[in-house]
TrEMBL record:
Residues of the HTH crp-type domain: 151-225
SMART domains registered for this protein in UniProt: HTH_CRP (SM00419)
Pfam family, one: HTH_Crp_2
Keyword check for Repeat: no
Descriptive protein name: Crp/Fnr family transcriptional regulator
Organism: Sphingobium soli
UniProtKB keywords: DNA-binding, Transcription, Transcription regulation
Length: 249
């Protein structure tokens, strides 16, 4: 079975969901040289203007990506979970245009650029998986733009909850699924472009409508299809393909 305790296992799982990876492909990915970082809640994984020297792969926890406008306001423009590349589609070394901040305790692997580029040139399936990951990231960013551009508050928050569910349950959401919300209401406001007061009011309305049940930061979703319908949420194929025989440790 696959070496699930290997630090880079989340990367293998993510790329294996994008393209068919052989056991040799998986072993090659696990053999990539890397350095590991631990970042506590509120800490920065990457800061705007920082020169990034390697491919940052999130191994655990939840982060968000944000920018600061000229008037000092924070705009959250994306969420990240295990297996995500944090600097796509830019190839390091490059200067970061965003802040990536930890919402929970986070582990990040910094993979040598030359090593992962060489591997993608040697193995077409890995190159295809990385290209598909870039395409998925771009699609998610478009969805975020649409979400804050034209939808009313309930739909914006519903969309955010749907994405968090998909990151917590890679097999997909289902009736009765639950998540522990890693974001405060201030974070939700900055991610959806509405005020904190409106976030609180909308969450209470969604609870009264039976769309969610809340206990502190625990969110229970009784009817997954109803939530996705309101959010106009079309899940990307997070696990569209299954990897071949698992890598032996």
């Amino acid at each position: 079975m696959m070496a699930d305790n290997h630090a880079l296992a989340p990367l293998v799982e993510r790329l294996g969901a994008r393209a068919q990876l052989s056991a040799d492909d998986q072993r090659a990915l696990l053999a990539l040289p890397y350095q590991e970082r631990l970042v506590g809640p509120g800490g920065y994984v990457v800061e705007e203007g920082e020169l990034i020297m390697g491919w940052h792969v999130q191994l655990s926890g939840v982060t968000h990506r944000h920018r600061i406008s000229a008037d000092g306001l924070r705009h959250i423009v994306g969420m990240h979970g295990p297996g995500d590349f944090l600097n796509l589609p830019i190839t390091p070394p490059a200067t970061s245009e965003d802040f990536v901040q930890a919402l929970t305790r986070v582990r990040v692997a910094i993979v040598q650029t030359e090593a992962i580029l060489a591997l993608s040139q040697e193995r077409l399936s890995i190159l295809r998986a990385i290209c598909d990951e870039i395409a998925a990231d771009i699609s998610i960013y478009r969805a975020w733009i649409s979400n804050v551009g034209r939808r009313e508050a309930r739909a914006r928050i519903a969309y955010l909850l749907c994405e968090l569910v998909m990151r917590s349950h890679p097999g997909g959401g289902a009736d009765g699924c639950s998540i522990t919300l890693p974001m405060s209401q201030v974070d939700i406001a900055d991610a959806t472009g509405i005020t904190t007061v409106h976030v609180n009011r909308t969450l209470r309305a969604m609870q009264m409508q039976g769309l969610i049940r809340r206990h502190r930061r625990n969110i229970h979703i009784p009817d997954w299809r109803a939530l996705t319908r309101i959010a106009e949420f079309r899940p990307l194929p997070w696990t569209s393909r299954k990897v071949d025989d698992r890598v032996m440790p």
